[in-house]
Amino acid sequence: MIQVMCRLGLVLFTTLASATGQITTTMAQPYSSLERFEVSAVKAARPFLVNTIAAIQQGNAARAKEAFDAYDSAWNGIEVYINVRSRALYQVLELELQAKISKGLDAPRPDMPALLSDAQMILAKYDEAIDLVTKAPPLNPIYDELARLRIVRAHLREVNPALKAGNIAKARKSFEAFSDKWFDIEDFVRAQSLDAYVAIERGMLAVEDALLMTESTNVAQVMALVTAVMTPYNAIVAEVQRQARGARP
Model's pTM, two decimal places? Predict the structure, then answer.
């Protein structure tokens, strides 16, 4: 009888241990599948290159330029990761291929076959960058803060070029995107410099009044107001970049 009870106890213990292990594995699995911010941020720029290639294949230079401009904005946010990981790959992406494609799209009569070849090449190199950051160990967390600042700033960088081109709708859309994303990083900015935070907040209100709350936009005035926001924002980016350079990767 005692032996039977022992065997039953052993079976019960084994069953509970197995069930507990399954529950633990099930609960842990979602967390293990989460990507680091660096990886997800770098991957987020890739679709714009795909869109650029699709537009070139369709012979639509205007749409290709729009898609590549979107890539440029996304790249400006995350290029710091690639620059730290591989200076050689960064130079190919930024100084060679991106510059070549931008110049080609700005030409009066873009050479579409040449652009297609260059666009496919930059996509292949960008996939190398994704593979690089995916397999590499995490950088110092300050690099993520720097990237977040740059990703949010990318929307603000679009405003004045759009105003200069007479594209008020684009300028408004970009500023609204910046304003929405500002909430994600404003606490970090305030911790870095209260003076810069206050200047940015006040400047944003002024831009909002001059760009979003009026039907008649004074382009010169709004561009000056945007610059007044960009100046303290750039100062924060520069300071955090200094911190990142001084930290161990």
Answer: 0.83
